[in-house]
Amino acid sequence: MHWLSKKRYKIGLTIPTILVYSVYIILPILIAVRYSFSKYSGLGKPKFVGWKNYIRLFHDPLFWSSFKNTMIMFILAFALLMVLAFLVALLLNQRLVGVDFCKALIYSPAIIAPIIVGIIWVYILDPNIGFLNGLLDRIGLSALKQKWIGGNTLTPYSIAVIYFWQQLGYLVTIFIAGLKMIPGEILEAADIDGARPAQKVMYVVIPMMKTTISNVAVLIITGVFKIFEIVLQTTGGGPNHVSDSLVTYSYSMTFSSSDYGYGMSLATITFIVSLLITGIYMAIFRDKEKKE
Amino acid sequence: MKKNLVSVIVTGALAASTVATMTAAPAFADDAVTIKFGIHVANPAEQEPVTNSIVETFNKENEGKYKVEFVASDTESHSKNMKLAATDGTLPEIFWIDASEAPEYSDAGLLLDLSDFLNQNADIKTALNGMEAAFSDDNGQYGLPYQCNVQGFFYNKELFDKAGVEYPTDDTTYDQFIDMIKKLKESGVTPLAIGSKNSGFAMWEFNEFLSRYGWAENIDKYKSGETPFNNDDLAACFDKVSGIAEAGAFPDNMATIEYFDAKQLFDNGSAAMFGTGQWDCAEFDENLGDKVGFWWGPKFEDSAYDQNIDMKVPSAPIVVSAAAADDDKKLEAVYEFLKFYYGKEAAGISYAGSIFPSTNYDGLSASDSQYAMNSMITALGNGWKTPSAAPDQTLSAAVQEQLYDSLFGVMQGTYSSADALDKMDQAKANE
């Protein structure tokens, strides 16, 4: 295998990947950025309008409302997934009866198409026909009934919970893979030193799983900024865009209003925000690693 | 050795299948000129059965000569697909397009001027009776009406009887409508089924409201910017929509249900009224039979505009790609299909499927068992005037989308009338 380590072969082997990545990832992003500086209905030639779309965007209350919704979804989904996926992974990493069945059960939502996930949750959260309000009625807690979806407030929180439900199994699997990588001798040594389970997790497991945790964090950040089908299926972004995320609002402007230029400016901002959050997280994470 | 054996078997199988395909091909050879018809539903046989029947009949009668194939996808995907096809020059020869988008296609030179077709077929021009005028501009006749839309309120007579409410008439006023809603609500049914999720377009019954507040008289001023959308007439109109919501007309979960879910509420007898058009007649015949009635909507006593208005308007157009003219055989096939589509035989198929065709031919009518369509025909018997186009179809895509959003915003209490109309002005300013 010596020949593979030569520089020219390394370059040769990475060129196809770079080409595919450039054509299917980089180029569309550049095209979207270009359109974001134009007035374009999807037909004819785009008309260059400079920063007009971006100026409009910062004065658009619906942009800020969809930005707020996206951040609510992000903070809630991030907190729930990082903590609970890790704890569930710790639990499922034990040799317990029925653990394989539980793994399959927890993973199962991850294989359901997001559009179907949305339909399932409509039947749970719909204020009129939903299971949840029906249950509250039956157990005499009608006062707690809410417009979980379709109202003016709760939809982004509900979307975050749905996303959590859908992603939990997938992220648990990644965490379990990370836990399996920790050498047994190190954990045994901690046991011999008298570490309690919580101390083992805090001072051995978490430090040794930093790369896995970092990868999971990036997956959540990028995933939340792509939530689309769940919003579309539960509320369609309504009523009146109050439950739109940045992605669904961008989609609505682009395709329903045929305002491609403005839609692309929203898409560009979404891309920059997710890039920034990922970048900030990675910078903090690396900074901590260096200090240690 | 094993690998070689597998390779030989796989290669042999591939070669055999290729030969089989090649030898089988002549059996399916068809010299018919094929034209594509881009349609806005994913399953034409189920969702547009009349158009599907017209195409099937045409294909059968022209076997070996012309053939029409659907390019089908749901409305939103269809709109996107047509724009993509327009950019890479692969538009179907004929396609349905929303009226708000068609002028853009026309301006971009993508559509064939159908004036020649109409001049060559004077009988069709006569049968269209001016309905084609909605789809002409400086570039010519860029489209022809796909169908004729008759829009308003369908109601369930049985639920009205149970609630002790009289059926609405041509003279029912807005205040009486509000009383009607309250009594229906008290009887335990949803007075007016409507869903806003991904269904902004499903506001047909409110086109009548807009018309009775002078839409047709003022639309040119709105479009030119001379009069803002936020004016006294439209504010009064939107206030009426708000009043209906306050009276409890709509389902509590209208934000999470779609047009199809709302229609289901009407079909299964949970809702007393449903706003839609003739395309749902066959479904209502099946589910409600002779219990179904049709009404144009309330009259507004505070409006200075004519209240005697029906809503029988051209639906969105079907258009022909300009590229079809590059191939004489294709153009001939397109013209032949259009001749059939706007001919008497197709009009008969339309009536049989409870769809009003855009053409008028003598001797065609609905059968006695087409209750929903007959109730519309009775309503049309008042002889009132009708606008040349439905109000929502007179706007550009962005303002049309905002009109939908604004109406549903008022219905759901998200916007005041003034906010809703300001947003329309803002959408107009952003164009």
TrEMBL record, chain A:
The UniProt entry's GO biological process terms, in alphabetical order, are:
transmembrane transport
Q: Which SUPFAM superfamilies match?
A: MetI-like (SSF161098)
Give all residue intervals belonging to the ABC transmembrane type-1 domain: 67-281
Organism superkingdom: Bacteria
Assigned protein family: Belongs to the binding-protein-dependent transport system permease family.
One Pfam entry for this protein is BPD_transp_1
According to the record, the segments passing through the membrane are: 12-37, 71-92, 104-124, 162-182, 203-225, 260-284
Q: For this UniProt record, give its keywords in alphabetical order, as a comma-separated list.
A: Cell membrane, Membrane, Transmembrane, Transmembrane helix, Transport
Membrane topology term: Multi-pass membrane protein
Q: Can you say what this protein is called?
A: Sugar ABC transporter permease
Show the InterPro entries listed in the entry: ABC_transporter_permease (IPR051393), MetI-like (IPR000515), MetI-like_sf (IPR035906)
List the subcellular locations.
Cell membrane
Where does this protein come from, organism-wise? Porcincola intestinalis
Entry GO terms, CC? plasma membrane
UniProtKB/TrEMBL annotation, chain B:
* Keyword Signal included in the entry's annotation: yes
Tell me if Signal is a UniProt keyword of this record.
Answer: yes
Secretion signal: which residues? Answer: 1-29
One Pfam family named in its UniProt record: SBP_bac_1
User: Per its UniProt record, what Gene3D superfamilies does this chain match?
Assistant: Periplasmic binding protein-like II
Q: Transmembrane region positions? A: none
Keywords in UniProt for this one? Signal
Protein name per its UniProtKB record = Extracellular solute-binding protein
